[in-house]
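--- STAGE predict ---
source: upstream dedup step, 1 unique chain passed
mode: sequence only
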Amino acid sequence: MNGHPPESESEHFSPYRQDGKLYGFVCIVTGATQPVGRAIVTELATHGAACIYACSSSSSSLGGDDFAGLEAEVHKVSPSTKVIGYPFGLASEEETLGLIDDVLNTWGR
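--- STAGE serialize ---
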């Protein structure tokens, strides 16, 4: 996948809300290219999330304008937050376990 760990963890921490409750967290948002998901991703970045896995069941939306717009939106509020587009379907237990394994193997948490 494209979720490679940063050279140093602190390079992806948001400097704007160091006291934020989510400072340094790795978050997963399903439906991230939909309106509610987009709002959640942006809010997580605002509160200091280090990395957000933006999941969508449509892999075409992750490679298109929807994801590029989401990534730009996040970097406006938190330039250091890393956004990773991740194709994911909630209906599959196998995909769910794969996502969890990928996050844990990449970030260690």
